[in-house]
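Issue 218. Parser rejects a valid record. Input:
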Amino acid sequence: MGSQMPGFEPSDTAARALRANPQPVSTVASAAASIAVRRDSGLWGYERALQGRGFGAVAGVDEAGRGACAGPLVVAAVVLPQGRRGRIPGLADSKLLSAAARAACYTEVLERASAWSAVVVPAGEVDRRGIHVVNIEGMRRAVARLGVQPSYVLTDGFPVPGLGPGALAVWKGDRVAACVAAASVVAKVTRDRLMDALHERFPDYDFGQHKGYTTPQHSAALTRHGPCPEHRRSYINVATAAAGSAGLPEGWRASVISLRSADGQNDGMPATVRQSESA
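Output the parser choked on:
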């Protein structure tokens, strides 16, 4: 692989993957990695550099809800047009924007994008298959659903195989690549609106406020009411709350308590919890 030019910073994991896999995707990625992207080139620097080398339709992919313990995972993909039309006013990483600014960006992205898609993965599927598996598959599905075939795909932070002829992980991609930032906005706004709707169905948990992430208020509601059907029961804090609810088998409760002791914490992240029958 050619020497890396200043300003283009794929993650170490991505670089190792490219070196270990000398397939056509690596050839394309190598060509992209030889492009110099100035550190001060702004949010559109990656797209301009790639488009200047013939990669006309650059897609960005990002997700929302990976760390939540309730509600769906949402994965979005966006291709922004070249030129002034692709310069979305106020565009930035969705986590850095206020709710009002995100909503304004969301409207602009949907109006201006050459193509966009959003994949919603229900909580039950997250439990059955695991968050990492459904996240990777969701990214592939989001790219496949685009109305425009991307010539290159940028992902946020880690490489995703199977995205097409060329793909590269970009460290903090939602802060340095416009198409990834646009995807983060679409994913975040889509998910937030779904969580607002879930708040209407399950008002005891205040999903409209914390959007399914673990907060002291959410944890208190879980302890008080137990999990609802939209909670991810493969997450340790939800499993612990379920184990404390009335009517569950004692062996199930014991397995959760054992896992919690082994982990040494209850932070809401996934844990493998299997129901066991008491002797």
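Fixed in the parser; the record now loads. The radius of gyration is 21 Å.
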